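Structure ticket #2291
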Amino acid sequence: VKPCSLETSTNNLCLGELIENMFQRWQNGVPGLSTLGPLDPFRVSKLRIAQRVPPNLDVQVALRNLTTYGLSQAKILNSTSLSKNGYYTTGFHVHLKKISLNCNYKLRGHVLVLNLNSAGKMVAEIENLEFFLIFKMKPVKSEEVGLTFMNVTAIKTDVSRVDNVRINLTNLFGGNKELENSANELFNENWRVLYDVLRPVLTQTFDTVLEDRFYKIFNYVPARYFFQGFD
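Resolution: structure written out below.
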């Protein structure tokens, strides 16, 4: 890993390479850091979403054991850095060619013309996903070891682009496969409506997982291995 400058820049290429390398080399975790889960696949135990976009969508969704694949293939399209008042803010424009999600779901409400009250398995594939990722960090000197570590104080993601969504939900109508297949076809023909449900899922998932992973990484590996100018 090559240490990067955190001086204010609108095109910090080094930071982009750093994040790509971390996603790829540490997709299964960081050697010696047993508390860190994998980056690819990454898992979230449960999420709850209530989404209302009249007239096509009014649902409450509970997801459990959500597993997402594909983050290790992330490409950084642009990266920025800002130094101000002892804090460092870095921004990344991230592109993922494809990610896959699977989980258990419970859904109640209406989607398009369908009234639903069901529970089963969900599998989804998302093509050409782009999102913005922002880190806010503050260097902290450890008196115990005499080294500086980067404390992640906030991480925020914002999904900006999706080219296609394919989704399959099981057990939509109590096991009636003909109705289930027709409903999934309807969802996929109108995938933009499903995107209104999945967008907060993706945002919450990325926020939760990335904050946990990078907080632990930066508190375990001294700042000098990532960034220039630190002891």
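Closing remark: The domain at 13-225 is CATH 3.15.10.30 (Bactericidal permeability-increasing protein; domain 1).
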